[in-house]
Amino acid sequence: MAKDSLARGAQSAVFPQPMEKDAPIVFRGTVADEEAPQVISAAQPDELEESLKRAAHAQYIAQCEPQNGRVLLKRIDLKLSGLVVQPEQFAQRSNMGEVISIASECACFLKAGDKVLFGEYNAEPLVLDGQDYLLLDHHDIRLKLPR
Questions:
Q1: Residue 2 DSSP class
Q2: pTM beyond 0.90, yes or no
Q3: DSSP string of 25-72?
Q4: Pick from 3, 9, 44, 64: CA 20 to 30 A from residue 31's CA?
Q5: Quick one: how many helices (H) and strands (E) in the chain?
């Protein structure tokens, strides 16, 4: 009984035989090991909630279909690793993007997931479900990049 008292939350335990002062103590399993409940940490519910939000957002975006030969893109921001740090207000936005969806009547060479370069001034900014996207005509895509 004494060996299980610590597993049940007691502050100290009485051992049946006297021990030397610096002798090592060997633990051979406790009741707590056998009956350990699964504890969800405080970070796990947040991660679960975030992954559910991402899945719902992906499903929402998959249902959005551009019309009239348009293409929905997500801009890919390039991080330059230089010594000079440029303030955000003067930084030039990248004209590279990832294709999210294409109009069904558009018989072009693109498919979802392709990386492309597009014209700088013809992109129409959109905010869908809190995320920034671009909507542009498929003729404004300048170059399809290899995967």
A1: H
A2: no
A3: P-----HHHHTPPP---SHHHHHHHHHHHHHHHHHHHHH----TTEEE
A4: 44
A5: 3, 6
Angle at the Cα of 92 (from 87 to 98), degrees rounded to 5? 125
- Side chain identity at residue 109, one-letter code: F
CA 17, 22, 23, 25 torsion-angle sign: positive
Angle, vertex CA 78, rays to CA 76 and CA 81, nearest 5: 165
Return the CATH number of 70-145, one of 3.30.70.20, 3.30.70.260, 2.30.33.40, 2.60.40.10.
Answer: 2.30.33.40
Q: Using CA atoms, how far apart are residues 139 and 147, in angstroms rounded to an integer?
A: 21
Whole-angstrom distance, CA of residue 125 vs CA of residue 136: 9
* Main-chain dihedrals φ then ψ at residue 95, nearest 5 degrees: -105, 30
Spell out the domain ranges in the chain.
70-145
88 in helix, strand or coil?
Answer: coil
Give residue-wise pLDDT tens across range 47-91: 778 888 878 877 777 777 888 888 889 998 877 667 677 777 777
